[in-house]
Amino acid sequence: MLKNYLKVAFRNLWRNKIFSSINIIGLATGICCFILIALYVTDELSYDRFNVNAENIYRVDADINFGGNALKLAVSSDPMGATLKKDYPQVQEYTRIYASEGSKLIKKGNEYIDEDKIAYADSTLFNVFTLPALEGDTKTALNEPNTIVISETAAKKYFGTIHATGKTLEVEMKPYKVTAVIKDIPHNSHFHFDFLLSMKNVAYGFGNFLSHNFHTYILLKPGTDYKVFEKNFDQVIEKYIFPQAKQFMQIASMDEFRSAGNKLEYHLMPLLDIHLHSARWPELDTNSNIQYVYIFSAVALFILLIACINFMNLSTARSASRAKEVGIRKVLGTERKNLIRQFLTESTVMAVISLFIAVMAAWLVLPLFNNISAKSLSLGSILNGPVMLLLIALPVFVGLVAGSYPAFFLSGFKPIVVLKGKINTGFKKSSLRSALVVFQFFTSIVLIIGTVVIYKQLNYIQTTNLGFNRDQVLIINAAGALNNENSDAFKNEVLKMPGIISGTISSYLPVASSRTDNTYSKDAVMDAKNALSMQTWVVDYDYIKTMGMQIVKGRNFSKDFGTDSSGIILNEAAVKVLGYVDPIGKKIYSSFQDGSNNPLSLKTYTIVGVVKDFHYESLRQNIYPLSLRLGHNSGNVSFKVSTKNLQELVKIVEAKWKIIAPGMPFSYRFMDEAFDNIYRAEGRIGKVAVIFSMLAILIACLGLFGLVTYMTEQRTKEIGVRKVLGASVPNLVVMLSKDFLKLVFIAAVIAFPVAWWAMRSWLQDFAYRISIEWWFFLLAATIALVIALATVCFKAIKAAMANPVQSLRTE
Amino acid sequence: MIKITELEKIYRTEEVETVALNKLSFEVRDGEFVAVMGPSGCGKSTLLNILGLLDDPDAGSFLFNGIEVAHFNERKRADLRKHNIGFVFQSFNLIDELTVFENVELPLIYTGVKSAERKKRVEAVLDKVQIMHRRNHYPQQLSGGQQQRVAVARAVVNNPKLILADEPTGNLDSSNGNEVMQMLTDLNEQGTTIIMVTHSEHDSRYSHRIIRMLDGQTVTENILV
Ligand SMILES: Nc1ncnc2c1ncn2[C@@H]1O[C@H](COP(=O)(O)OP(=O)(O)OP(=O)(O)O)[C@@H](O)[C@H]1O
Ligand SMILES: [Mg+2]
Prior knowledge:
Oligomer: heterodimer
Number of strands of chain B: 10
Shape of chain B: globular
Order of helices and strands of chain B: EEEHEEHEHHHEHEHEE
Strand content of chain A: 15-25%
Number of helices of chain A: 26
Helix content of chain A: 40-55%
Number of strands of chain A: 25
Distance between the termini of chain B: 19 Å
Number of helices of chain B: 7
Largest interface: A-B, 21 and 23 residues
Largest sheet of chain B: 6 strands, mixed
Helix content of chain B: 25-40%
Strand content of chain B: 25-35%
Structural class of chain B: alpha/beta
Distance between the termini of chain A: 35 Å
Largest sheet of chain A: 12 strands, mixed
Radius of gyration of chain B: 17 Å
Bound molecules: adenosine-5'-triphosphate, magnesium ion
């Protein structure tokens, strides 16, 4: 019997090819989007869960408000972890990662490769995180200095085999012994390192509680409430931190420190929250944002909902036109239950076909999707989850619901009523249908506004005035390999080449590079009130010029002033915090720490100039106080160039490098690319959001098209009658469009505040953001209107142009 | 008022060619009441559609009030139609979503009559067909006879010079049918020209003249008065 139903069902689908394909494609697109987004979201939610102890691992974060600087740090001081373990039995283990030095050059054969997935770590890293070894014993691997643990990928890259233990790797000209090879860190980890060096190799003033440079993780004993544990930090501050702070600052107590408007707080960030909830500084990898998970989930549900509604609408709409068939079948003696089964079979078959197409399509576009989203998702990961269950249940459910209207409604009518066509009005006037159309437009409008805002914001980030000029700046990395004279010689030689405008030696750049924080005060004696903590960048005379920064007051460092080694240039943010109207010539004092534990006497600087604020962190953050000091810091040599052929220029520069620093590794990057790196992740997510919004809008249009078609068909006779009575084509088009326009209007009224609220909270995360403008709304409403009008007009004009005699004959 | 000469209408489908009107000629003068009769499929409805400017002929001439309209375009035909012609159909063709009042009001809207004037005229004509008390009802709530009275009201509300009726009593019982025929006769007496297709010899007797058709041609014309 079922076979017979199926046979008839397939025949019916085939007979109405256009309708069937619109319906199937619509639902399939919806399910396909849903699958892709489900994969994406599932992946986002899976971060760091591979760690066996994931639930009990916490990162120690610091919130520091000090001297006008508000820091939300993902790092804490180096003794913090050990102190917590020593003093509190709840702490089972701690580990530290030191990644402040950035990328390093590793020698492979005769070449040097700039590796950025590199950091120093304690051997306890492997007790806290689940990073299984392929070779060697990770328990002790990093205990000795000059040891290194590498990933499978790194082992293959440098040794051509995973059997690398015992071999030597040269990092920054220094030999390290490979003591273990670990499996590659899973992609869904909040950090990715291929090289882990022994913490013993870090040149650092250990024991300093005031300097925050270590990503510190603690493993709490199971059952420990981390919120309760956090209360212990007050004790830690009193016992360890305050005594050290007192050494270089005139403060009597932590309360005094706080009452001066300062803040020092430590928090525990649960490991599982890091990827989606942590936007601190510095993160070990670009994190995502829970908002995107919300946005994507909402979009996925919207898309699925729209697609299902469309499917039901279209099926129902078409079944109404089959009323006559039902009537005749009943007159001929078909039983009601057979009709019900037939209709249900048809719609379910259609839904199941959609599911298959959707899965196929998802499988086909997944590589592309992975490419855009920079993920490595595979369909396999949802095959056994609840998502899979939903995927199977959903089409069946949608099919059954969509089939139930014709099944139960039509088949229940007396054949004669159905034959007279009197029940058509049921769906035509229904407020349910209006509600569905409103919902579709509502969704489309919200999505359009969202798309515009996201697009604009990402565009703004790309084009906003950063306060420096990132175009045509060539950065030579690792110039630290040169000594002072050589780096000067190199700079001067390169400056002689055509196409080079200026050059500067400094490892502090407004893209990813070195950072140093120092504490200053307005007065010769530093206390809690006058302290100002700010970035301190060591630069040379040509820095401002090469970076395209702008002096707004005073002057740049100059060789004409012999005293500039005690001069300082501040950014506008720093001047504002200091409260100086006329800062030039004023003195500020710095506790210049040399990395040792000794409190140093304050050093005096004279403000010689003010540089216009420039962005040196993500645009999600405010610009904080920053100072430039004159000195020789040869981490990088940067050149402002003017040439069409950058690659050619790089070759010439490299040749010069080889002469001045024979055997020294040469590596470079361009500042604009380095800048784009900061926003690549963001840009990617934006792109994905835009694509899905477009798809959602497309599906909504498809549904709208179906509905309009159906509704116009329902009104064929009416249109004929009206034409006979003298209605013109424009009359009729207006009449048919009016209803839809009303619905678009209602949808817009609901959508505007929702979109405004949603996008405002998204933008809130950016310190530098566009404002939501009224024309975004107008644009969205207009697009929705145009879509509606185009569809309606297309159908309406066709119906209105038809010979009324024909429509009247259809009676 | 109407003069057609050698009018032709041919329907072409994939294989078959149907000659619905075959060189048909006749004339209808102002104020006449003409019945068109003939077996099913002989072309009566086709003829009425052309006379009503709903459809155009394939060949021949059609003079309406002395103007050649056979090759008028859609817009011109619509214009002429809405000011001069009223229709009554066998299946009433009322719009289900509109009330009795709104149905009758439609032709006035399309000819641009002002709202107050419309109300007056619709009420007057509803009064005349004795359906005023049901003005706010929907078509489904009326009997067949009442629906046809509404349809007649709608056809005459614009004071057309010509009324075309295609089997106006086809769906009605004899008493309702007679009522409608009486209404048409009254209208005719007030000067409206009427052309009515019918299968009923009884109804045809209300007319002045019967045109009998066969296979798209006129066979005889009986003058009754
Ligand atoms: N749209 C059309 N396409 C093809 N043939 C048509 C079309 N309309 C009418 N015909 C054919 O033209 C001929 C005349 O049809 P018409 O409707 O005018 O007949 P009629 O005299 O009104 O018949 P009845 O008394 O049954 O209403 C018929 O043979 C019919 O099949
Ligand atoms: Mg007919």
